[in-house]
Specification:
425 residues, alpha/beta, eight-stranded mixed beta sheet, 17 helices, 15 strands
Length: 425
């Protein structure tokens, strides 16, 4: 029986992260990312006529496994002393000094400010970033930004599946030095691809990772629009974050009306209750983008509760990342202050739950990714959290949308009945 050497096997096993690395690295251009309507995520499609079974896509895919030990040794020259944080030099909190950048970003504007600084200083010639597609506003658009304005156009978080690494193809085919902004799975894919592609290794100057517990599927976005009475075809632009911190979701309609959804409204639903979480994301052990040069996330700290503009949490991991931070601070582009590693650790605790998540998945016959790294021992609380997450995934896949609609209708009918009773009395 002929063995398939492509990522078709990864998709079949339910392990694809949708990162897009395989599309960019394929020497035959035999792959593309398409949205699975049933799963609400991106999956690769292989053109079997053009594919020559070279195996490069499978070799660079982070979905079926990542050898963190090997990559940590090659990137940082050592294994991490801190199991949860990974290799790091310093932890900070900070923000951009440009108030417009800071206010209109997701949290602090550090990534945007650093990319602009690196571009203007000639450190990079472009940056792989993601904006929402103008012609299809509910879908993301990874691209290479080459101007300050283009970098700013990609600010704010994108709470949907993003195949960012498809744009690596442009980096491979062009001269220059580039920064890449991505989630942990994107960074993992790039690090694996750098091992087999010399051009990619030489042209990537900086990897900026974003903390990620999980995105929400496209089904989640559609559910949210439905909940607020908005049809997808009515949307002109969608901003998941921005306009201060923690900000809100802004739905720009084609008729000129703006609908604002408070951050708390959807944050509790999608990240507190974990509805519409892609199943593969439950089996990820890397919340803090451990293989990046610098990692960033919202600084959810008690002393920042009153912060209305935004502050970032930063984990500096490599010498080139630390150097960029110090240069930008010395030029007055950003502000930084030290943060104890213990407090940073609480922001990237997903690895603590991986043991429980993987064991429960194994019990029901699910394929598991192969992670070569030291993992903490799962506790009872981790198993409870894992059960809650899997229940949310199950419900949002099969019943939730229908159930919430039904409950909403019952509530409306009950309200009408109470009003009628009141009128009769």
């Amino acid at each position: 029986m002929k063995v398939d050497k492509t990522v078709v096997t990864v998709v079949r096993d339910g392990l694809c992260t949708g990162c897009g690395t395989c599309v960019a690295i394929c020497p035959k251009d035999a792959m593309e990312m398409t949205i699975s309507k049933s799963k609400g995520i991106y999956l690769p499609h292989v053109d079997k006529q053009n594919c020559n079974q070279c195996g490069i896509c499978l070799e660079t895919c982070p979905g079926h496994g990542v050898d963190f030990d090997q990559l940590n040794g090659g990137i940082f020259g050592k294994q991490p002393e801190d199991i949860l944080l990974g290799n790091y030099l310093n932890c900070y909190i900070g923000h951009a000094t440009d108030n417009n950048v800071r206010y209109n970003s997701a949290s602090g504007g550090l990534v945007t400010a650093l990319l602009i600084f690196a571009l203007e200083q000639g450190i990079i010639t472009g940056a792989l970033v993601t904006r929402m597609n103008e012609s299809s506003p509910l879908e993301p658009q990874p691209f290479i930004a080459r101007t300050k304005e283009q970098i700013i156009s990609a600010c704010k978080s994108k709470y949907c599946p993003v195949p960012a690494n498809i744009a690596l193809k442009e980096i491979i085919n062009e001269d220059g030095r580039f920064a890449v902004v991505g989630l942990p799975c994107h960074i993992q894919g790039i690090r694996k691809a750098e091992l087999v592609n010399k051009k990619l290794r030489e042209r990537i100057a900086l990897l900026l990772g974003i903390f990620c517990s999980h995105p929400m599927s496209f089904s989640g976005t559609r559910f949210l629009l439905d909940r607020y009475g908005v049809q997808p075809e009515e949307v002109a632009r969608l901003d998941y974050r921005g306009e201060g911190w923690p900000g809100h979701m802004t739905i720009h309609l084609k008729n000129g009306i703006k609908r604002l959804i408070p951050h708390l409204d959807y944050n509790i639903f999608f990240w507190g209750l974990n509805f519409f979480t892609p199943a593969r994301c439950a089996l990820c052990c890397d919340q803090g983008a451990e293989l990046a040069d610098i990692s960033f996330g919202d600084a959810w700290l008690p002393e920042l509760v009153g912060d209305k503009i935004g502050t970032s949490a930063i984990i500096s991991r490599s010498a080139r990342g630390e150097d960029l931070l110090k240069q930008a601070m010395s030029k007055g582009e950003i502000t930084l202050s030290s943060l104890e590693s213990d407090r940073s650790r609480g922001m990237v605790a997903k690895k603590e739950q991986y043991g429980a998540m993987s064991r429960l998945a194994h019990l029901v016959g699910k394929k598991l990714p192969s992670y070569r790294t030291e993992l903490p021992k799962a506790k009872l609380a981790d198993y409870i959290a894992a059960l809650e997450l899997y229940l949310a995934i199950f419900l949002s896949r099969r019943y939730l949308w229908w159930l919430i609609r039904l409950l909403a209708r019952i509530a409306r009918l009950a309200g009408k009945s109470l009003r009628l009773i009141g009128l009769r009395r």
